[in-house]
From TrEMBL:
SUPFAM superfamilies: Nucleotide-diphospho-sugar transferases. Signal peptide: none annotated. One of its GO terms (cellular component) is Golgi membrane. Keywords: Cell wall biogenesis/degradation, Glycosyltransferase, Golgi apparatus, Membrane, Transferase, Transmembrane, Transmembrane helix. This is Glycosyltransferase 2-like domain-containing protein. One of its GO terms (molecular function) is glycosyltransferase activity. It is a multi-pass membrane protein. Residues 221-366 form the Glycosyltransferase 2-like domain. The keyword Coiled coil does not apply. The chain crosses the membrane at residues 109-129.
Amino acid sequence: MSNQAQNHEFQEWWNKQRGFLDKPDSTAFLTVEISNPTTSDPTVDKGHTRSARQLSWLWLLKFQQLATSLAWLTNGSVYLLRTANRRIAASRTDSPSDSSASSRRLYRIIKLFLLLVILLLCFELAAYFKGWHFSPPSMESAEAAVERAYAKWLEIRAGYLAPPLQSLTNVCIVLFLIQSVDRVVLMLGCFWIKFRKLRPVAAVEYDGSENVEDYPMVLVQIPMCNEREVYQQSISACCVQDWPKERMLIQVLDDSDELDAQLLIKAEVQKWQQRGVHILYRHRLIRTGYKAGNLKSAMNCDYVKDYEFVAIFDADFQPGPDFLKKTIPYFKGKDDLALVQTRWAFVNKDENLLTRLQNINLSFHFEVEQQVNGVFINFFGFNGTAGVWRIKALEECGGWLERTTVEDMDIAVRAHLCGWKFIYLNDVKSPMRLTRNSNIAGIQVQCSCSACALLTHFVQRCLLARKRI
């Protein structure tokens, strides 16, 4: 009974409270009405309302995410710049000189491109904030501008470009006619040589019955630089020459800047030294003058004065065992003979299209140009290898000079101006390998530019005739 009385009292109290809450006068201070101007419904859903504290935490969370993103972008940019700087520094120290120069140029181009992009971005931002609007030109104004530019171009072309181009065209026509006449004369000379069977004749022949003292002292030089693939073949071919060992000395002139290449070449030289061959290994500490500087340094040795002739072979040449016996006899009885040049033979002439084209070009050079010039005027350009020089002639014309990269042409012209004669042997061939890739184009351009510079130098010296050439 007591529980039912208590429940009855609670029910009456609760009804009184509900009646008080249902009165319209008491709602003014118990509820707060928040109206949204964007909607016509005065009531607001409780699920979409946010308190001031919740909004504060929401904005703090967004600011934290923004700060985290900015910090991540900053750290990533710094890491990227540090990585790029480390790779640039590593490329400068570890890579060879040629590749490092090209990589430095590439990095400069990349830096300039990035700077240009940043400048354009800044300009775009400035245009956006300043309110600059660049509208494209109309079709009529564009056509008028194009017509004015084309008329101006025709005026410039007719008044300033056409006369010098016409003059250059006339010069090219004259040079073409001169070269055509030269080629016709060379072809006629080649036919005459074949028809009359003209060829140089040696005064003596070495058949092995002579005394050792009858063989002249010969110095063999093999200049090379980082030749990993062919150094063994060239050194072996020179070491097995059919010539008395005590009358021959081989100089391996190594200009390699790679330590492993130096060790390989030095080990090959030591192997032949143990077999009794007179061979020396030379490496320059100051590598200046390229091949001319290397040969000049070798000729300054004290023991060179004991030798009468010097044979030069590049690292990609493998002369036959009888090379010296086929070339040295032509110097006998010809005190004015400075050079005996042999023909090149190509072991890979049919490897690809590039080697076949080189074979055609160089075969014409040896078969026609050098053979005709050697027979009729006793002068032609030294090919830089596979030839034998009289050391006295080299000394009289000034030796190897480091002023150009076409040192073979330089010394040949100076020797000819000093009165020395040359002989070309078309029957004696020295095998070599042709370049198999497109690097030959860069080499040809470099040689052509150096030859033009050398021609200018000699023309100036001949016209002035004041200084010794």
